[in-house]
Amino acid sequence: MAQKIIGMLGGMSWKSSAEYYRLVNEGVRDRLGGLHSAQCLMWSFDFDDIAVLQREDRWNDAADLMVEAAQRLERGGADFLIICTNTMHKAYDRLRAAVDLPLLHIADPTAERIKADGHKRVGLLGTAFTMEQDFYKGRLADLHGLDVIVPDATDRATVHRIIYDELVQGKVEAASRDAYRAVIGRLVAAGAEAIILGCTEIMLLVGPEDSPVPLYDTTGLHAAAAVELALG
């Protein structure tokens, strides 16, 4: 069968982009069988370039890089795009205006699954940018009607530090897993019925056994939605 070509904006970090590549190929194989795999193009950033702009609050400059990469994928023949990171969905509106391709937002398949499972009040883990700014929480609340809670300032700093100092560098530490378990426990005590793993690296650290409530892995759900769109 004809597949749509998935354009993947990756490298933020390459660790999670490698998971995206594995998941979309496994998803196509499982759907079509045999030797089938996904038709995709990936632009992979040097993540340090993006991370510096994030730290310096130069989001417009970061969005410029994202737009340039998206246009490269469009010229290369991609049929639709996915941003293989939660945080850089801050550039989502800029990308939508800059390319004539559908852009599959990572929060949408996540929210749809959460609603289908009957949850309303959700805890959000991610980078400090994702947890504190409105570009992500606002979409979950305004478009999908979810009640989103985030950790307190101390816990947000811990979650953010572990992402940048460990997970994006391929370090998976038992002490950090314990720290995340504690943060999740406090979100559940505050009323969270489910937890969104709102950074594409967090699934490298924690799984269902680490939480008393369901975890929603944005990486897996986003990749599955991309497969569904690619196969029509």
Automatic annotation (TrEMBL):
Keywords: Isomerase. Belongs to the aspartate/glutamate racemases family. It comes from Telluria antibiotica. This is Aspartate/glutamate racemase family protein. SUPFAM superfamilies: Aspartate/glutamate racemase. It holds the Pfam family Asp_Glu_race. It comes from the Bacteria. The keyword Isomerase applies. Gene3D superfamilies: 3.40.50.1860.
